[in-house]
Design a protein that fits this description.
The chain is an alpha+beta fold and about 170 residues long. The protein is built from 3 helices and 5 strands; from the N terminus they run αβββββαα.
Length: about 170
């Protein structure tokens, strides 16, 4: 297994839509294992394939994140089939490190897709897990969490990110 480079928001791959996955094979399984390792090393709750440079329609999420019991799942070709209620809560992103903002999302979602064995999967999630699913789905659509914010807030966060990046490079 390998730790992969998480692309930051300046990388054009993050604006690409994830292409449907047609073939579940050893290469995909290896990619997913590397994604798990990368996500856990970065202390993330989820990771979409385009965040590591692969414009594929898949993500990994730790669905046990709120319980403290690790439960890693892979969702291939995911689709949100239902959304209920709304809430605003703070979000961050591995592709925009150290930047957080309040984002409006559905409080409950139903998500369907396929797992690494090719089996259909369905998740009903609420709260933080519903937020994580929606966040990763946005990555697969080529958008970032701050695209949900006003242009003023987004520009402030972009400047903050650039400043943090400049300080890190010095």
């Amino acid at each position: 297994m390998s730790i992969l480079r998480v692309r930051n928001w300046l990388d054009p791959v993050l604006r690409k839509k994830g292409e449907p996955v047609d073939n579940i094979d050893e290469n995909l399984a290896r990619l997913v294992e590397d994604m798990y390792e990368t996500m856990l090393q970065a202390r993330g709750a989820g990771l979409a394939a385009n965040q590591i440079g692969e414009a594929k329609s898949l993500f990994v999420v730790d669905i046990g994140i709120e319980t403290g019991k690790r439960d890693l799942v892979t969702v291939i070709n995911p689709v949100i089939t239902a959304r209920e209620d709304e809430e605003i809560a703070e979000e961050g992103c591995l592709s925009i490190p150290e930047i957080f903002a309040e984002v409006r999302r559905a409080r409950r979602v139903e998500l369907k897709g396929v797992d690494l064995k090719g089996n259909d999967v369905r998740y009903e999630a609420e709260g933080f897990l519903a937020r994580a699913f929606q966040h990763e789905m946005e990555h697969l659509a080529g958008t970032l969490f701050w695209d949900n914010l006003s242009s003023v807030k987004r520009n402030i966060l972009k400047r903050k990110f650039k400043k943090l990046q400049k300080e890190a490079d010095e």
